[in-house]
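lol forgot to send this yesterday, sorry. struct tokens for the thing we talked abt
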């Protein structure tokens, strides 16, 4: 999250969770799901473009 310069709100949006959930991950109160780790690492390593991620978020919001 920090390496990507993402805010709590950014991570919450990308992962489809609340900001409070991300705060619990950061505090160590709740474990970070492997899917979150994989997605954020994929973005950081350039394997997933931000454009692709944004498209998926928009699509998910339309469906919801």
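and heres what i got for the seq, position by position
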């Amino acid at each position: 999250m920090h390496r990507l310069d993402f805010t709590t709100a950014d991570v919450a949006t990308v992962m489809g969770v609340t900001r409070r959930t991300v705060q619990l991950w950061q505090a160590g109160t709740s474990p970070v799901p492997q899917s979150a780790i994989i997605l954020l690492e994929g973005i950081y390593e350039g394997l997933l473009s931000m454009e692709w991620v944004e498209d998926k978020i928009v699509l998910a919001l339309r469906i919801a």
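The two ends are 25 Å apart (CA to CA). anyway ping me if u want another try
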